[in-house]
Each structure stands twice: as C-alpha cells, then as structure tokens.
Amino acid sequence: MKTKEFYVVNSFAKKSFEGNPAAIFVEGNEIDEKKMQAIARQMNLVETVFIMEPDNKKEYDFELRYFTPIKEVPIAGHPTVAAFIALEASGKIHISNKSNYIIKTKAGLQEIKVHKDNDETIVMMESSKPVFYQEIIDRHEVAQVLGVNVDDFIEDLPIEPVHTGLGHIVVPVKSMDALMKVKRNINELKELCSRVNMSEAQVFTFETYDGKSNIHTRNICPRNGIEDPGCGIGNSAVSAYILKNKYPNEREIRLKAEQGTIVNMPCVIETCTTREEGNNMRVLVGGTGRVMIKGECNIE
Asked: Is the pTM of this model over 0.85?
C-alpha cells in the first residue's frame, strides 16, 4: 500500500488548539489531481495543500495546489503559512540557509519570506496586487444579507470589493458587538458575491480584545461548514482597503488582526501594506503556526 506523509498545521496560532488548521502533503509530485481532490474531501478541512518540487528551481522553489473538500482554489493565505511551517518541520527547508522563496500557484508566482522571532517561525506571503472595485452603494441590502443594521456600518468608510487573490467584499462596522452579530446567510451572501464577482465577505472593526491588535475581522464565506477562523487573503484585502480609505497619505501600514474568536479558534494575522508607484500596493500577510498532527495517508 502506498502512503504519503502529511501534517496538520494550525496557522496563525500562538499555542496549540488555536489558529486555523490546514492539511499539508509535503511530497505531492506523484499525486494526481483526482486523488488530490479525494484526499481533501477525506481530510475535510478548509483547505488541503499539495507541495510539488520542480526539476529546475530557477523560476520558483515550490508549486502549491490548494483544495477545499469540494474544489480547487487558486491560492489561500493560512494554508500557505501552514505549508512553510510543515516544510521546516519535515527538514525540506532550513531558514538559517535561506529565508526568501518563490512559490507557483494558480494565481501566479508569489514571494514568501520566512524568519525567526523569539524562536517562532514567521511566514509572510505576498498576496496578489490589490484591485479595488466600485463601492457597493446599497447599504440596506448588505445589512440585510449580513443580519445587521445600516447604523452598524462606519459611515465615512465604503463597502468595497477588493481582490487580493480570491475577492472579498470588505465591510467596516463600528463595534465588536456589531461584528459578532453578523450572520452567515449563505444563499443571500452567495448571490451578492456573485453579482459583484467576489468570493467572500471580510467584515472588520477597529475594536479589539487585545490592546496590541489593530482590528478584529470575520470571514463570512458563502459555503456550509464552520466559519473560517483565520483568512490570510481576506485580511490582506482589509489591509489594502484601510491604507486606501483610512490612511490615504501614508506610504505603509502594519496591522495585527484578530480573527476566529467567535469559533473558539483565535488567530493573530499580521499584514504589511506598502503603497508603490502608479497607485499600486504590495501586501505581505502571514504569521506563525503550530504542527498539531504528523501522519501517513494511504493513497491507494
């Protein structure tokens, strides 16, 4: 029987049993696409990642493919963090020898920076360049979809679709109370997202539980199952949105975001967003993680 080693890594976790889990197969070269999807369905986590090493590393170091239990997605933030935590745990990378990597994904080539901070491995990923779309004017519809009141939205900030790899409707609310009462009305949200060509909503407030954090966010995704405890790509969209709309005269902002408290899987997600020439932005998003499980999967 053929087996493949895998890890379950909780991304954005400060300690065990926190964070956002992903399954990582560090040797994915011999697994075909149909079997990748079957394995992801078996793992039944938000994403399962398969890492392939190219024959020639001139263009990129690793290729990553991301599968939910039902389909492949082009890129995802927390599984990328988990992937590099697993690569280090498996001995396939050594941060003391190399700290910058290029990965190939269905969204293109992405830069990954890995470093140590007080013995913690920190993985920062470059998201796709932010693209901003037309503000959603009908706040009453958004309020109805999310189960909140129009008065819960921050008046002087827009409800704006932002694409940093997946596509998020970024929604600013005034308070933690407002954020925590947001409902996951899956069918209504799916319809709204489809209409504006986005995948999910990322709702945030400037109120936080930890005084060292800058924002608290929730990823409201139109699919069944547990709410995503920590969405890296969603937080990169929020970070770009905040630089554009709240700090239009700043060149760079660094944010620490809380997420996942509502599902008892707290995450801490770090972003660094820099304004570049031509109104472009560069967003790095990431954090640390914990290896929770190491095992073998029978694939035949």
From this structure: yes
Which residue range is the domain that position 43 belongs to? 3-126+288-298
* CATH code of the domain covering residue 80: 3.10.310.10
Return the number of other C-beta atoms located less than 10 Å from residue 95's C-beta: 15
78 & 14 share domain: yes
Query: Does the annotation count 47 as an active-site position?
Result: yes
> What is the total count of domains within the chain?
2
Give me the catalytic one of 27, 30, 33, 47. 47
**How far apart, in Å, do the first and last CA atoms of the chain sit?**
6
For residue 36, what are the CA distances in angstroms to 73, 92, 171, 297? 12, 21, 34, 12
Are the CB atoms for 291 and 89 separated by under 8 Å?
A: yes
* Residue 105 sits in the same domain as residue 194: no
Q: Are residues 48 and 14 in the same domain?
A: yes
Do 206 and 227 share a domain, yes or no?
yes
Each of the 300 residues of the chain gets a pLDDT tens digit; together they read 789 999 999 999 989 999 999 999 999 999 999 999 999 999 999 899 999 999 888 899 999 999 999 999 998 889 999 999 999 999 999 998 999 999 999 988 989 999 998 889 999 999 989 999 999 999 999 999 999 999 999 999 999 999 998 899 999 999 999 999 999 999 999 999 999 999 999 999 999 999 999 999 999 988 766 788 999 999 999 999 999 999 999 999 999 999 999 999 999 999 999 999 888 999 999 999 999 999 999 988
Q: Is 158 helix (H, G, I), strand (E, B) or coil?
A: coil
Pair (199, 292) in one structural domain:
no
